[in-house]
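Hi,

Apologies if this is the wrong queue. I'm a grad student, and the batch job for 3-oxoacyl-[acyl-carrier protein] reductase from Xanthomarina spongicola produced an output file that my downstream script rejects. I'm not sure whether the problem is my script or the file. Here is the sequence I used:
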Amino acid sequence: MNLNLNNKYALVCGSTAGIGKATAMSLVAEGATVTLIARNEDKLKAVLAELPQQRNHDYIVADFSNPEELKAKVSEYVSKNHGFHILVNNTGGPKGGPVFSAELDEFENAFTQHLKCNHVLAQAVVPFMKDVGYGRIINIISTSVKQPLDGLGVSNTIRGAVANWSKTLANELGSFGITVNNVLPGATGTERLTEIIKNKSAKTGNTEEEAANAMKNAVPAKRFAKPEELAYAVTFLASECASYINGINLPVDGGRTKSL
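Support response: The file is valid. Your script probably expects a header line. Output copied below for reference.
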């Protein structure tokens, strides 16, 4: 199958590490021109240097704790450069802990960084997508939208809000040739997973290796995902091949989620 993303422009959030970086690399491999976006300019420059230079890949420095600044920077970029056919919303998850003991500002901060920022980015890129009759908005969320995860109370709550925002947006934009889908990572080999394993180890008294093995044993595949495996799913959804897939939650979790 030739996914053929030639002449497509993609904006990839959180693209300096983990799933975001792997997604940027995968989209580029299929022919897309990618603009990276994250808050650390040095890391953005380092990833940009890894991309093939035959296309004009670029980056935007923005902090997702400030959605108005993010909106201004992306809108300015679009007005001076080009629009985007593909938007990959991807932001690091909130810290763990029981939902009952969460402070109000934890919910507010997570809501801002995830739902509000996803929303302002969609508003910035959709006019171009409508003009060209092609758009792909892909949100990296969590399997918690199907099955809440113990010890991730704030994340469970906010991810659910993003999933429903996404489904509503899919219904509104489908007639314009724009699809909106969610990719739900299971346990994936990223810095976020390392943090979760450390927290589980501290909570249970088990070693980090024991905590990791317990998590792997909960997955039929008996291993963690590689970031590239999530990136392949995103890249497919970004392509013409996925033009009739809209408004779905796609778990990429090795079969861990118990529900269909």
